[in-house]
Amino acid sequence: xxxIAAYAAPAPKAPLERTTIERRAxxxxxxxxxxxFVGICHSDVHQVRDGWRPGIFPMVxxxxxxxxxxxxxxxxxKHAVGDRVGVGCMVDSCRECENCTAGFEQYxxxxxxxxxxxxxxxxxxxxxGYSTQIVVDxxxxxxxxxxxxxxxxxxxLCAGITTYSPLRHWNAGPGKRVAIVGLGGLGHLGVKIAxxxxxxxxxxxxxxxxxxxxxxxxADHYYATGDPQTFESLANSLDLILNTVSAPxxxxxxxxxxxxxxxxxxxxxxxxxxxxxxxxxxxxxxxLSSSGIGGIAETQEMxxxxxxxxxxxxxxxxxxxxxNEAYERMLASNVRYRFxxxxxxx
Length: 346
Ligand code: NAP
Ligand code: ZN
Ligand code: ZN
Prior knowledge:
Bound molecules: NADP nicotinamide-adenine-dinucleotide phosphate, zinc ion
Order of helices and strands: EEEHEEEHEEEHHEHEHEHEHEHEHEHE
Largest sheet: 7 strands, mixed
Helix content: 10-25%
Number of helices: 11
Structural class: alpha/beta
Radius of gyration: 20 Å
Number of strands: 17
């Protein structure tokens, strides 16, 4: 066991504060990673506030982890000391079910072991990346390509893969009209990746405040959802909508923008149940779906794709003691476009 510094919420809704946690000794197939940067995902805010389910406290959030391998177990073959690596939302899964064996570890039938706010196979709580080190099984660690700096790569480990996976699954590419709802952490990477895939990209944001940024990120069109004209002019025109908003939306309004066989894929995970009317799907054989992060191999594919296309997150690097303020700013949609903690400040 090693004692290391971390930032934790001691109880639900409590501010995060500096503390120490124990990391297990490096086992046969483990790697110990010196964390350099960790992104702040809106899922961290949901979980610290017990928005989805009662959490495990103290909670050390953080599942957008980028760092360097400091030690490897004797059985490790995939990573070596000095390698630049990342860890996303999961650190283990059953490895045997039909989803794990097909590369969809995120949909493990026995539930993946989440990077934090979960219990590992050893029954111990998991602690995330708002910390200086983490010990992870080599199979759940991915390689960060040389072309990507660690700070801009960190948010790819959740926000990047969460948008890449559905864009690929629903065939975003040339000739496809893709809309991204919400220009935050997920949304801005969704715009960059959809543009790099060759799709025609529309941003649907609460206001036109971030329009210049959106167009620079690769959007072809940018609309304010507060303007009723937006919904009239885009009716029946889109192939795919990725919704990254963390609060419930008027589904009927968004579904009406899809052309025949179009899909609306919900990535945002509101804390409340949502409602919609089935007729909005029926009229054009539309689909309403949701997608969770991506598998390990697909996460590696996404990182390689991003390196090849020069895609990193737009970040604001903060000291660890600014984390509570960062949460407030995230709740107020005031982030351009991802907070990343420099873990040297923990
Ligand atoms: P974020 O950075 O806070 O971005 C969300 C964006 O949604 C905001 O920047 C804002 O963009 C828009 N928005 C926020 N509140 C809104 C409201 N009440 N009405 C309309 N628009 C609103 O959050 P994030 O880190 O991208 O995460 C977004 C959601 O995805 C969260 O619920 C998170 O838990 C979830 N998530 C899911 C997965 C998955 O696997 N499916 C993975 C990661 C995160 P504008 O100002 O442009 O409107
Ligand atoms: Zn996340
Ligand atoms: Zn499984």
